[in-house]
């Protein structure tokens, strides 16, 4: 059986593509592994994002109350879910010492709890006129 040069070249080309694909996949896996502590799994990063997420929620609720804003109920609910998850993070055991270390932290977290509870109670009535304004009123 004789192998022609074209088949040999094609086999070498296919093998090179397979080896290259495996190498690129391993590089991507290494990069993801290296970046994981900096991203979503990093509790300090998630905690630092809490004020901006809260501000985004307030902005979406305000915009929802305006006609023609382009903000829909799903957007407000998504932002509410995000801040609810941030609140769970702030109540986690990983942050318990930090929160308890300063009375201002405890008061701020309690105020955030109150605001989220108030908003949760009104979320079902979001389409009722005046509800977005009531959600944003200070406690």
Produce a short descriptive summary.
With 139 residues, the protein is mainly α. The protein contains six helices and no strands. It has helices at residues 5-35, 43-64, 73-90, 96-100, 103-123, 131-136.
Architecture blueprint of SSEs:
Elements: H1 5-35, H2 43-64, H3 73-90, H4 96-100, H5 103-123, H6 131-136
Helix pairs in contact: 2-3, 3-5
Give a written overview of the molecule.
There is one protein chain. The longest helix is centred in the first third of the chain and has 31 residues, at 5-35. The chain is built from six helices and no strands. With 139 residues, it is an all-alpha fold. Helix 2 runs antiparallel to helix 3 and helix 3 packs antiparallel against helix 5. The mean pLDDT is 88. The protein is 74% helix and 0% strand. It has two domains: 5-37; 42-136. It is elongated and about 85 Å long.
Oligomer: single chain
* Count of alpha/pi helices: 6
Strand content: under 5%
Output the helix-strand order. HHHHHH
Instruction: Quote the distance from N terminus to C terminus.
Output: 87 Å
Q: Supply the helix-strand structural class.
A: mainly alpha
Helix fraction bin: over 70%
Radius of gyration equals 26 Å
Q: How many domain regions? A: 2
Give a short account of the largest sheet: none
The backbone outline, from C-alpha atoms, is elongated
Give keywords.
membrane; mainly alpha; transmembrane helix; 2 domains; 139 residues; transmembrane
């Amino acid at each position: 059986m004789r192998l022609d040069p074209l088949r040999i070249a094609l086999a070498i080309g296919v093998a090179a593509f397979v080896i290259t694909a495996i190498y690129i996949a391993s590089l991507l896996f290494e990069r993801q592994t290296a970046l994981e502590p900096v991203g979503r799994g990093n509790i300090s990063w998630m905690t630092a994002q809490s004020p901006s997420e809260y501000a985004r929620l307030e902005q979406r609720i305000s915009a929802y109350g305006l006609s023609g804003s382009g903000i829909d109920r799903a957007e407000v609910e998504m932002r509410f879910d995000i801040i609810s998850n941030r609140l769970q993070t702030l109540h986690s055991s990983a942050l318990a010492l930090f929160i308890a270390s300063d009375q201002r932290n405890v008061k701020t977290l309690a105020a955030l709890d109150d605001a989220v509870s108030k908003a949760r109670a009104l979320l079902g009535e979001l389409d009722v006129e005046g509800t977005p304004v009531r959600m944003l009123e200070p406690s």
